[in-house]
Specification:
- The protein is α/β, with parallel strands linked by helices and 570 residues long.
- The protein folds into 3 domains: 167 residues, Alpha-Beta Complex (Lambda Exonuclease, Chain A); 75 residues, CRISPR-associated endonuclease Cas1, N-terminal domain (Ribosomal Protein L15, Chain: K, domain 2); 237 residues, CRISPR-associated endonuclease Cas1, C-terminal domain (Four Helix Bundle (Hemerythrin (Met), subunit A)).
- The chain has 17 helices and 19 strands.
- The longest helix is centred in the middle third of the chain and has 26 residues.
Length: 570
Amino acid sequence: MDQGARSEVPELLPARMLNEFTYCPRLFYLEWVHGEFAENLDVLEGKIVHRRTERESGSLPRPGAEELEMKEAGFSARAVLLSGEKCGVIAKIDLVDAKDGKVQPVDYKKGVPPDGGAGVWEPDRVQLIAQVAILREAGYECQSGILYYAGVKRRIEVQVTDKDLSMLENVISQARSVAGSDQPPPPLEDSPKCPRCSLVGICLPDETRALSEEETDGGPPARFTDVRRMYPARDDALPAYVQEQGATIHKNGEVLEVRKGGDVVDRVRLTELSQISVFGNVSLTPSAIHTSCERGIPICHFSYGGWFYGMTTGMSHKNVHLRMAQFSTAADPVRSMQISRRFVEGKIRNCRTLLRRNYRGDCSPSSNELKRLAELTARTSDPNELMGLEGAAARVYFAAFHGMLDPDCSPEGVEFDFQSRNRRPPRDPINCLLSLLYAVLCKDVTVTLASIGFDPYLGFFHRPKYGRPSLALDIMEEFRPLIADSIVVTLVNNKMLTANDFIQRGPAWSLTGEGRRAVLGAYERRMDALISHPLFGYSLSYRRVLEVQGRLLSRHLMGEVPSYQPFCTR
């Protein structure tokens, strides 16, 4: 990414960001420059500690006012917003105590002090010094501040000297220099700070460092054995699918209710919801839409037949620099080609893996051909040749697809006989299943990319087309066989579908409501299944894998890792 240094660093730097910078410069950059934010237990506990201090109360007289000089009980003011133009810092001070003409900022922290309470954490001290500097610039007499550690219910006074203020100037200068850079600082190396950081799943410190140091010859890199998984393997929140025609989704407190004809059909807690998918004639009330947008819960819209139309979200991700890098790369034929062949190579290798795992008989001819095509894909530099190789691999793969299906598992009245890939409309039950699963997978990849900060509609291999989420289709390539195709094989060979799950109208096939429910259930089980990451060795769900791959792509586009590595199972 070569866009020149960012000169428009905001004039006022939040004092809280100085805390983050002192703790970890990369965390500061991701939060302040890229606008990344995530909650973990520490963040939530911190919010609880600050519940009282976030509400404005009390009064703080102006500097030199007569009431400030009173020597009685003094004054206290909560949630005081002040800024200092000279020092270039702004802060919302939790509490300001005023007595005998002097003021003291009180900063609340959820944890415990270091060394058994003999000192304070350096990031907390820097933040408090910034608050003292702001109060002094505003004209108040302020010589010290208080750090209140809620974990031990202890107030620790911190004296602020001229040396401390000089140190603060240096910290502010360094933070502004980092904020003006085109790339975030490198991750901390094997740091004990990382596991408890709320942004560890976004930062990916061990993964980024490992890939940035790996020298590859164009093939898949070696497996890294020292990469730690420092984020949950699965998400607690899950998607909700609503396909009851004529239903309406209402908000009732902290619950979304699906109602039809005045009756509550189903309900789900907002805290347990990651996204909402509605099929056909399903509507949402304004309050349900507003709450979903406010809490970052995307609403995905499908036709009754399963065609993915689009999604409703809140304000788009703030990381404009990632989208600038994405657009710049898409406009560069050489860089686009380098990434595109990774997508295609990953897809071909995973198709070969699925065949070798599930083919009933000898799949050597197809397997050897797919291996040859994958090797050619890794070496090609011609976009037209790449498209030809991808098409040739798809023909080989789908010609052998029927060999993974047990012919004795077809229910009475339905023939699971797959000859070739077809759609719009699907002309056999297998293609009907593939179309729905590809649409739902495309939805999940689109949601994931949008949450990271990408524009899902601008891809590298799939060229821009009106209404087509091209980048989602790019990332999807390596996951089609591992997720969608694998689910079809499982549904058929385990006799999980019946004739009542399908509808045939002329040459076209579609799923009934019950059939779609069975397929979506199998899809969610697959997305929640744990798998060992082929590079990093730790276990995580397929839904989490989609996010990791999206973030690794962002690291490549921003220049942190030399190449994008597709997800290829062994």
